[in-house]
Amino acid sequence: MSEAAPRVSRQICPRCGRETGVDFAQTRCPSCGGLLEVRHAPPELRGAELSALFAARSANRKGLDASGVWRYRELVLPGADADVVSHPEGNTPLLESRAISKWTGLARLSMKHEGHNPTGSFKDRGMTVGITQARRIGAAAVACASTGNTSASLAAYAALAGIPALVFVPSGQVAAGKLAQTLAYGARTLIVRGDFDACLALAVEAGRKLNVYLLNSVNPFRLEGQKTIVFEALEQLSWEAPDWIVLPAGNLGNTSAFGKALKEAGELGLISRVPRLAAVQAAGANPFARSFRDGFSSVHPVKAETLATAIRIGDPASHERGVEAIRSTGGVVTDVPDREILEAKAAVDAAGIGCEPASAASIAGARRLLREGVIRPEDTVVAVLTGHILKDPGLILAYHQEMDPPPPGANRPIEIEPSLLEVERVLGS
Ligand code: F0G
Question: Which fold has domain 94-117+221-402?
Answer without folding.
Answer: Rossmann fold (3.40.50)
